[in-house]
Amino acid sequence: MTQKAKTYMLPTAMIAGSVAGYFFPQPTAHWATVLAPILIFAMLLVTYCKISIKELNIRPLHIGLLAIQIVGGLVVFGALYFWDPIIAEGTFICLFCPTATAAPVITGMLGGSVSTLVSYSLMSNMAVALLSPVIFSFMGIHAEISFIDSFLIICSKVLPLLILPLVVALLLQKFFPRIHHTLKNRQALSFYMWAVSLFLVVGKAVTFIIEQGWESVPFEIAIALLSLVACVGQFYLGRKIGGKYGDKISGAQGLGQKNTVLAIWMALTYLAPITSIGPASYIIWQNSINSYQLYLKEKRDRRL
Question: Which of 41, 67, 74, 285 has the fewest CB atoms within 10 Å of its CB?
Fold first, then answer.
């Protein structure tokens, strides 16, 4: 598939998902619930097969980015909570969500360090896997039951989804090297699975939004606008932090480009479902920023 076709695939998946969610709400929501976790697992597995543990290095840049992602997300949640808990959750998930599996690809296209992004992508996902059961236990749909019960429910779903792909990738590398090599050299698979996942989760989000009625529109607008602020802010802060270590591009992409498919799934599963407006809007904002950055890069390259 050409690069131009790939450029249009994700917006097409979003539009198609929106149409499916509007006209076929029940089957769209059903298949999103069933298939989205499987596709997220498969995407991470393909991505992790590209990772060599020996090449992974924790750098000061990674610590700075992770602090914004985790601590910054909690600070923003606390600041917005007294305004409205739902808006606070919708903004929080836009910061807390881990780096996108496609971030290293975009980083390479922009001239940044792919190895830096691969390392941070793993760190980012592992941090979310370990911390989300604790954090989500204090908010969202499981907040009314005991902490232990809530913690165990979320652990049973999040940990296998985010950590098991890494374990499977390492086992394949050791015991089934041919399969591992095949997945390692088929990284485009994650892009196509991302498009299908995007279709499903956007469709499910649209289905839920329509059910809310006009009274929820002010919440939806507020969450969407705050997701824009979160997106621009994270690209900016990531670039600033990256600049201190000589890698502005990796810093910006590591912090700003999010796994929005996972974020929407988490919002619909563990938080108030209307908070999925945040990551759904974030898809538009981050793709707009990345498209503009790629346009500027191509324009500069033509001048050389």
Answer: 67
Query: Using CA atoms, how far apart are residues 145 and 73, in angstroms rounded to an integer?
Result: 24
Phi, psi of 97 (to 5 degrees): -55, 140
Q: Report yes or no: 45 and 165 within 8 Å, Cβ to Cβ.
A: yes
CA distances from 166 to 45, 50, 51, 53, 66 (A): 6, 11, 9, 10, 19
Tokens representing 265 are: 């799934």
Write the pLDDT tens digit of every residue in 154-197: 677 767 777 788 889 889 988 888 998 888 888 777 778 877 88
pTM of the predicted structure, to 2 decimals: 0.77
- Gap between the Cα atoms of 242 and 191, Å rounded: 26
Q: CA–CA separation, 230 vs 210, rounded Å?
A: 25
* pLDDT tens-digit series, residues 129-150: 888 888 887 776 555 556 677 6
Angle between helix 260-270 and 25-48 (nearest 10): 130
Quick one: 283 exposed, middle or buried, by C-beta within 10 A (0-12, 13-18, 19+)? Answer: buried
User: Smallest Cα–Cα separation from 32: which of 47, 17, 45, 42?
Assistant: 17
First to last CA, the chain: 27
Residues 175, 172, 63, 159, Cα dihedral to 10°: -110
Residue 258, SS3 per DSSP: strand
Of 124, 81, 117, 118, nearest to 259 by C-alpha is: 124
**Interatomic CA distance for residues 111 and 258, integer angstroms:** 19
Where do we find the tokens 């699975």? 193
Q: Which long-range contacts (CB under 8 A, 24 or more apart) does 58-62 make?
A: 58/119, 58/123, 59/116, 59/119, 59/245, 60/245, 61/116, 61/120, 61/241, 61/242, 61/244, 61/245, 61/247, 61/250, 61/251, 61/254, 62/116, 62/119, 62/120, 62/123, 62/254
